[in-house]
């Protein structure tokens, strides 16, 4: 085993964040290794989304330290842009660009940020659309696709930057029930291919099948963490037990 | 097996049934219908009787050249024909490239010179006008299967047409044998109105976009400067700005420096319009969800790239109706320059009416120029409606 594989790809140390006077993240610590799939879950308002949005600096934090792929997040815009090139993000509301076609959505960042030629980016873009199962929709606009298809385009768009880490912020919460599976299938395939993933989700079936470790957030703190086996069969904390019983038996 | 059935055909009522159902379905609607018909007859009848029997339309053909180009020297009018011909060619090409599926717009443009030829022109001028339609068609066929370089050529042609026109119209100096100077005091009529409008839009639009972005900037100095500019200009009527430019500016300048009067009015219009456009664009910017910024930043795009590639294209699309409204307003606002003594369409109308032989013909003259304003305004409005539906694709 090489040295760098033991070095975590994401390190968060004592991260604290406030919205005004509201203390949303309280001393959050986490280490993620290359190739790990992390599932973060917890009640709404527990800070789980805020935390993964801190990793690519969509949100600022007020104290603590986050190091991504050896780059420390500071307010230096160059560091932020380097980290954003290494991390792809998928949002709850897809956030596709409605004025661009599906293919244009996917190849925008490689062409504009990585300065690839349009031909090279298009080739990769078509491969990615193939990978997420919608190569025939390349010339359509996002508004013409179903929610599940849009979210798969969003995954392809994030992958087009060839990131080393993928962040998923409740990727299936805005989907109709019959479309959740097609998105989770793509994410499962991605996890099997060795991508480092941080997934905020309540899809416990996905967590059980794919996650290496799970983190339970409540009131801005990590209450409990462990393998899916630990969390589902032997949760230690009362709050974890209560939350799991609520979402598994609704 | 399928349950799909075709939709039943709705029977179209015959005209008599339609009348009964829509105009005479109860006593109150019948009364309204009769009253409206009487009103249309009374007004329309009065106007047609005036237009066809009482009105003295002779004032129009005699002064037609004044209405169109003001005092622009007869020997130099070929410059304007040349520029209009260039515009016809460019318009034809641009329509073929960007609006080929909108036949009605193309037909409308093609018919415009022919309709203008119905005005009491000389035969030579009518032929010139008809040849504009031919040039437009030529442009259309040249650019029908345009490649990328042809598209670029047409785009740059359109962008450069404005400054080139101003240059050619004003000439290259008194000594120049080919293009002697023509002072802007001789520019007038429709020519001046169009110039003030087109240059006004071409410069105030980018300025307005910058001000709108400035107002949303994170840098306090830029933000406050933009806010101060916008609110200051919006707090003042345009006519005040025009008077300031015409009367007060010379007081502050050294005696030997004089700025062209048309230029001063033009600057006033641009400054005024930019402030309003900025607010219209800002309205479009505010309609863009935060998620669009986040998605763009998360992909690694910079702030400038996000603004240019993601936010502005969507914001401007949303703002098209209000932007075109502002452009139409600008066209009509240019008539205020008549008050500060320039001879635009309205200003020329006033000088025509001051000629002793045409005293008291206000109705004829103002009716004539209002048709021009209406045609231009409605043309812009119609094109914007088509543009909106063309860009509707891909909206959420």
Write the layout of secondary structure elements.
The complex is a heterodimer of chains A (250) and B (396).
Chain A: H1 3-6, E1 10-19, E2 22-32, E3 37-41, H2 48-55, E4 63-68, E5 71-72, H3 77-86, E6 87-90, H4 102-112, H5 118-131, H6 147-159, E7 165-169, H7 177-192, E8 196-200, H8 204-210, E9 213-218, E10 221-226, H9 228-233, H10 238-248
Parallel strand pairs in A: 3-8, 3-9, 6-7, 7-8
Antiparallel strand pairs in A: 1-2, 1-4, 4-5, 9-10
Helix pairs in contact in A: 4-5, 4-6, 5-6, 6-7
Chain B: H1 15-22, H2 27-54, H3 59-69, H4 77-98, H5 103-116, H6 123-142, H7 148-170, H8 189-215, H9 220-234, H10 238-252, H11 261-286, H12 290-298, H13 303-333, H14 345-354, H15 362-391
Describe the structure.
The complex is a heterodimer of chains A (250) and B (396). Chain A has helices at 3-6, 48-55, 77-86, 102-112, 118-131, 147-159, 177-192, 204-210, 228-233, 238-248, and strands at residues 10-19, 22-32, 37-41, 63-68, 71-72, 87-90, 165-169, 196-200, 213-218, 221-226. Chain A is globular. Chain A has a six-stranded mixed beta sheet with strand order 6-7-8-3-9-10, with helices on both faces. A four-stranded antiparallel beta sheet of chain A has the order 2-1-4-5, covered by helices on one side. With 250 residues, chain A is an alpha/beta fold. Chain B folds into two domains: 64-184; 188-396, MetI-like (MetI-like fold). Chain B is 73% helix and 0% strand. Chain B starts with 14 loop residues before the first helix and ends in a 5-residue tail after the last helix. The model of chain B has no long low-confidence stretch (mean pLDDT 89). The interface between A and B is medium-sized, with 29 and 22 residues.
């Amino acid at each position: 085993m090489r040295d760098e594989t033991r070095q975590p790809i994401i390190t968060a140390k004592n991260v604290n964040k406030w919205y005004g006077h509201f203390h949303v993240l309280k001393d959050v610590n986490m280490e993620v290794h290359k190739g790990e799939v992390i599932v973060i879950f917890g009640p709404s308002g527990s800070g789980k989304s805020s935390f993964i949005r801190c990793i690519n600096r969509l949100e600022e934090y007020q104290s603590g330290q986050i190091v991504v792929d050896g780059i420390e997040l500071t307010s230096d815009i160059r560091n932020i842009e380097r980290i954003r090139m290494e991390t792809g993000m998928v949002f709850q509301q897809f956030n596709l660009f409605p004025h661009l076609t599906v293919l244009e959505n996917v190849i925008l960042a490689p062409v504009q940020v990585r300065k690839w030629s349009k031909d090279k980016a298009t080739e990769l873009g078509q491969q990615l659309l193939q990978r997420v199962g919608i190569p025939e929709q390349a010339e359509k606009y996002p508004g013409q696709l179903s929610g599940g298809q849009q979210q798969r385009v969003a995954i392809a768009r994030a992958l087009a930057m060839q990131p080393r880490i993928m962040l998923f912020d409740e990727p299936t919460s805005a989907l109709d029930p019959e479309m959740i599976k097609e998105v989770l299938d793509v994410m499962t395939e991605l996890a099997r291919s060795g991508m480092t993933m941080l997934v905020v989700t309540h899809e416990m079936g996905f967590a059980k099948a794919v996650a290496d470790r799970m983190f339970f957030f409540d009131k801005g703190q990590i209450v409990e963490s462990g393998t899916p086996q630990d969390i589902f069969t032997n949760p230690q904390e009362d709050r974890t037990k209560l939350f799991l019983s609520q979402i598994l038996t609704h | 097996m399928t349950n799909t059935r075709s939709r039943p055909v709705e029977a179209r009522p015959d005209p008599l049934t339609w009348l009964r159902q829509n105009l005479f379905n109860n006593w109150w609607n019948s009364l309204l219908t009769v009253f409206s018909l009487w009103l249309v007859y009374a007004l329309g009848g009065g106007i047609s009787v005036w237009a066809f029997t009482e009105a003295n339309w002779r004032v129009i053909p005699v002064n037609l050249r004044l209405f169109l180009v003001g005092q622009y020297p007869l020997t130099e009018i070929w410059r304007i024909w040349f520029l209009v011909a260039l515009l016809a060619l460019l318009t034809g090409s641009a329509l073929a490239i960007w609006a080929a599926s909108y036949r009605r717009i193309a037909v409308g443009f093609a018919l415009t010179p022919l309709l203008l030829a119905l005005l009491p022109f000389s035969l030579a001028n009518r032929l010139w006008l008809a040849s504009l339609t031919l040039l437009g068609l030529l442009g259309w066929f040249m650019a029908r299967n345009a490649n990328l370089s042809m598209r670029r050529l047409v785009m740059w042609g359109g962008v450069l047409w404005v400054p080139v026109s101003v240059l050619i119209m004003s000439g290259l100096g008194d000594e120049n044998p080919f293009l002697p100077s023509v002072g802007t005091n001789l520019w007038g009529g429709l020519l001046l109105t169009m110039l003030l409008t087109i240059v006004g839009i071409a410069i105030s639009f980018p300025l307005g976009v910058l001000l709108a972005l400035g107002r949303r900037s994170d840098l306090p100095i830029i933000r406050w400067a933009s806010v101060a500019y916008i609110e200051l200009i919006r707090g003042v009527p345009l006519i005040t700005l025009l008077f300031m430019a015409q009367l007060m500016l010379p007081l502050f300048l050294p005696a030997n420096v004089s700025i062209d009067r048309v230029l001063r009015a033009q600057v006033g219009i641009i400054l005024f319009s930019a402030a309003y456009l900025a607010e219209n664009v800002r309205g479009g910017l505010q309609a863009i969800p935060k998620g669009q910024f986040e998605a763009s930043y998360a992909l690694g795009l910079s702030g400038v790239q996000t603004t240019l590639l993601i936010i502005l294209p969507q914001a401007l699309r949303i703002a098209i109706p209000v932007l075109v409204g502002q452009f139409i307003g600008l066209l009509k606002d240019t008539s205020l320059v008549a008050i500060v003594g320039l001879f635009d369409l309205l200003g020329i109308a006033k000088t025509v009416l001051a000629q002793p032989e045409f005293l008291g013909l206000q109705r004829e003259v103002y009716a004539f120029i209002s048709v021009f304003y209406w045609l231009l305004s409605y043309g812009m409005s119609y094109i914007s409606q088509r543009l909106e539906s063309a860009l509707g694709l891909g909206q959420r």
